[in-house]
Amino acid sequence: MAEQIQNGQEMGKNPSHEDNLVALRRIEGQVRGVQGMIEDRKYCIDILNQIHAIKGALGRVEEKILEKHFQHCVTEAIKGTSEKEKQQKLDEILKLIHQTRRG
To answer: How far is CA 51 from the centre of its chain?
Structure first.
């Protein structure tokens, strides 16, 4: 059976990010909590503190996925012989850096 291609990457070769699901479910619960706080008209600073905690947790998930991307996807491209794939990975990284700098 042929592997599906997504964003120039064979899906069967993408690393698993399932280890982040627990954290993402916790974040989902925190977001629901903030919704409840807003519905209950809780104090603004308490809501903002919860939002800050959510952003921090989401940032940690982002860091783990980015680290895995470098360790797996980028490393494989650099080790490979395809100059096109190497350039594609570098372009992806530069695009990501530009996106994060804009916020």
So the answer is: 18
Dump the DSSP string for 24-42: HHHHHHHHHHHHHHHHTT-
Fold classification of 19-102 is: Methane Monooxygenase Hydroxylase; Chain G, domain 1 (1.20.58)
Structure tokens at 15: 């690393």
Domain boundaries, the chain: 19-102
Q: Is 41 exposed, middle or buried (0-12, 13-18, 19+ CB in 10 A)?
A: exposed
Could you tell me which residue, 56 or 74, shows the higher pLDDT?
Answer: 56
Provide the β-strand partners of residue 5: 10
Reported pTM: 0.75
